[in-house]
Every structure is written in structure tokens, then in C-alpha cells.
Amino acid sequence: MRAASWSLLLLQLAGLIATCFSSSFKRTDFSGRASRASRHCRIDRRVSTIRGGQQLPDDGGAEAITPPIEDTSVQNFAQDPTSIQPVAEQNGSPPISSDWSKNAKISNFKERAPPALLMLSATYLFLRFSGEKGLIGLILVMQTAMYSEAVSVVDGHNTKKGLGSIDKIASFPFQKWWWFATVLATTSIRSIVTKYTSLSNEKMSFVAFGMSAIGLVWAVVQLAMVNSISTEETYRNFLEKVACCHFSLLFLVGQSSFWIKTVQEYGLIWVLFPAFLVIVNDTMAYIFGVLLGKHKLIPRLSPKKTVEGFVGAGLSTLAVAVPLLKRMLGDSVTSDTPRHAIILALYVSLVSPFGGFLASAVKRAHGAKDFGRLIPGHGGVVDRFDCQVVTAPFVYLYLKNFFDVGRFSASD
Question: What is the pTM of this model?
């Protein structure tokens, strides 16, 4: 079972990284596009040309006429002051320093810092008084919010594009939440129910299977009842939204459910410690990027991320990992503590950021700046936890395979 779990985790990570890099390495040549557009718009005046509704005679000459290219930079800058790159960077020239860009990033950091500190303080106070059960309840709320945000981004994009065929399947809003309840019953709810009630894993598996069977029959019956001249389009749009919902369930709900298993079997510390590492990594990536960032890391997916920020964040995360874990464990520190801290810090530094890159790809594909507006300056819940959810399965599987649970109690 452990070997199978690690195999599934490795396959998932390989797919995540391959998706991010394959999207990033597609070539973009803005100057080439402009040149090709210009060549296609050249008009030989030996052929009669229309200008202002008046036909001009053939004068035997040739003139290249290039229509003006619409400049959307002002609109983009209004939405995101850091989204405009210097011209030299857009044309593939070596990156150059931009004082105004750094000032914009510093201003953005000042805007983001107070809500972040407020959120951390509120979470600390909540967990201090509610403990493990409070964290489990908070995870369930977060899973609901993340799923709602993810599917709403796709819904909003389809609405803007005028893809209304899906509305002909009136029960879809209920179906997507039925699928959410089914996956929740298979993951998080199963862990909670089997620990705090007398129901066994086998009974919960039967319940979850029954819910999935109902969802399958329900969806097929609804598709069979579609009566429209655009039936194929309706099917296509429906299946696209189904794929979106199930990807959100796999990436967000499925992975975050490992937090519940971790806190139940190993204690609150082993959920909070990786979470703090991700916060340190994300914060230091931003700071190093503002101060030293010169080279884009994955410009197509996340233009603000830099190589300097990625490396600086990784080194910072490794530097704080061991003392932070020792501080959190207190008297429970063992000779293996530094090894556990370093391994988790390496994963957080090298793999967890790819969760954020993939989330950026989803937002770009659907024309969204953020997944939500719940947290001022930060966006929605997905925007804050896209890297955290990628960390959750690894932490649990690592502890399951390499952690001596006999040395610690789950309540530590």
C-alpha cells in the first residue's frame, strides 16, 4: 500500500510539473507577430485600394500600409500595475531594471502585508482555543470555498463568452455540488466519521460508491433529455464543465483532505509546520524578486516570478526549517528532527510552488486576475492555498513511511 501511495504521488507530481513547463515553454514572439501582421496587411497599390469609401486608381506604385496595432497596455496597467514589462524584455532582449516596477511591487507588498498578518493572527487565536477539531472544521470550510471559487472562475469565463448552452441542463448547479459531497464523503468526511463514530471504512466506502452511482445516472439521464438543434454543443460544454469540476475536486479537495489524516494521526504541529514553511517560501520569493529579480522563471504562466526569487526563497526556507521545527516540538525534539525539517523544506521549496504556477495557468486561461476577493490584496482562498494543498499529501505520506510515531503523541 505504501509503495502504491508513493507511486501515485510521484505520478501526480510529474504530471503537475510537466503541465507547468509544457505551457511555459511555448514560444511567444511579440515582435514576430507584429511583423507577420504587417506583412499580411501590405497592399499593392497596383491593385485598386479603398480608402475612406473612395476607390483610388492604380498609379503603378507600391506602398506598404500597416494598420495600427491596438495597445491594451493602459488597460492592463489599470488592472495590475506590475503587469507591464519593459519593451526590451518583451522583444527578448536581456532584462533591464525598472525603478517604477520595483516601487509598484513594494506598494503592493505594503497592501498585502496587513491582511496577511491579520489572517495569521486570527488563525492562531482560533486554533489556540479550538485545537485539532477546530482545524478540521476550518479545513472543511476551506475545501468548500476553494471548490466554489475554482468552478466560479470557469462559469464566469463561459458567461462572458456567451456559452449559454449549458443552461439547458438546469440541474447542473445541483450536480456539481453533489459531486463535491461525493468526493468529500470519500475523503475528508470518511476520516472524520470513522474516527469519531462507530461506522467503518467499508461502510463509508459503500455510501460513497452509492453517491457516485447516483451522480452518474443523474448526469446521463439529464443528457438524454436534451432536446435542441445544438445538442452536440450542449454535450461538449457540459463535459467541459464536468472535467473542470472533477479536476478541482482532485487538485483542491482530494489533496487538502490529507491535512485531516495528518492532524488525526500525527498532531497539529505536522500541519502547521509545513504551512509555515510555505508562507516563508512565498514571502521570501516575493522579497527576493522585488530586490534582486532580473530573470523571469516561467514568464508565460507567472510573469512576476523570478529565478532570483525562487532560489532566494528556497535558501531562506532551508535556513529556518530546522530551528522552527525544534521550536515547535519543544521537548519532543529527537536526533531525526533536522532530517525531517530539511526534507520537508526541500519539497516546499522545489515542488510546492508548482501548485501556484498551475493555478496561474488556470486564471490566465479564463481571464481572471484572482480566484476571489475574500482576502484584500491576496484574492481568494485558492490564491492563498494553491501551494499548501500540493504539500499536504507529501507530508502525510512522508510521515507514514519515515516517521517514528511512537516517539510522539498525536496531541503534541
Answer: 0.72
Q: Helix crossing, 231-248 with 99-160: angle to 10°? A: 130
pLDDT at position 182: 95
Set of cell numbers at residue 316: 531562506
Summarised one tens digit per residue, pLDDT across range 246-279 is 999 999 999 999 999 999 999 999 999 999 999 9
CB atoms under 10 Å from CB of 257, counted, come to 26
Distance CA 156, CA 220 (A): 25
Positions in the chain short of pLDDT 50: 4, 6, 21, 23-71, 73-75, 77-79, 81-97, 165-166, 406-412
Nearest-angstrom CA–CA distance, 382 and 367:
16
Beta bridge partners of 63: 43
Are the CB atoms for 299 and 24 separated by under 8 Å? yes
Q: What is the tens place of the pLDDT at every residue in 80-115?
A: 544 444 444 444 444 444 555 556 666 666 666 777
